[in-house]
Amino acid sequence: MRSRATALPCKACATQRNPTAAMAWLRKMLVHGSTARANIISFNTVADACARAGNLQLVKETMQAMQELHVMPDVVTWTAFLVACGNARPAQPEEALLAIRRMVDARTLPDRRALRCLHRVAGQLRSRELCAELGLPVMEPRSPSR
After folding, report:
1. How many degrees, rounded to 5, is the angle at CA 27 between CA 33 and CA 6?
2. How far is 96 from 98, CA to CA, in rounded Å?
3. Residue 90 falls in which region: left (phi positive, over 0), alpha (psi -120 to 50) or beta
4. How many beta carbons lie within 10 A of that of residue 73, not counting itself?
5. The whole model's pTM is what?
6. Tell me: the pLDDT tens digits for 81-110?
């Protein structure tokens, strides 16, 4: 329960679509060594808020802070990175393709959501080629809803 509680201030900022405030809370946890310690949940909460806003730079900063504290990015973190690539203006397909490579190198396999994000950002052809090269499942396009 404690690990979820440490992410609450970050989550509140994320819910309000304020990635800068979420990042400020995370930095406060990191710098002041407060009783609320940053963990994978708080990092992912901040990364998700930044990704929804298309702020790829803040997602990168979040992942850098994770690495400095030896917190390994998980599939949620990497998916936030991919979402940020798609929401950035202009979109960043090359960054998304590189992220999948780095993700696999880190022995984190992308899930369906991550692969769909890659497909949306990099396009069907490029995402299929990369998945085939890396031995990942190729995502089929969603069939239209009836």
Report:
1. 65
2. 5
3. beta
4. 23
5. 0.80
6. 999 999 999 999 999 999 999 999 999 999
Q: Which long-range contacts (CB under 8 A, 24 or more apart) does 66-70 make?
A: 66/40, 69/30, 69/38
Which 3 state secondary structure label does DSSP give 32?
helix
Exposed/middle/buried for residue 89 (C-beta within 10 Å: 0-12, 13-18, 19+)? exposed
What 3-state DSSP class applies to 68?
helix
DSSP alpha helix (H) spans, 1-146: 2-6, 8-15, 19-32, 40-52, 56-68, 75-87, 93-105, 112-122, 124-134
In contact, 101 and 127? CB cutoff 8 Å = no
Question: What is the separation of C-alpha 44 from the centre of its chain, rounded to a whole number of angstroms?
Answer: 7
Tell whether the torsion through CA atoms of 67, 69, 70 and 73 is positive or negative. negative
Which of 139, 143, 137, 104 lies closest to 122 in space, CA to CA? 139
What are the φ/ψ torsions at residue 132 (nearest 5 degrees)?
-65, -45
Give the side-chain half-sphere CA count within 13 A for 42. Answer: 28
Q: What DSSP string runs through 129-144? A: HHHHHHTPPPPPPPPP
Residues of the chain with pLDDT under 70: 1-19, 21-24, 29-37, 140-146
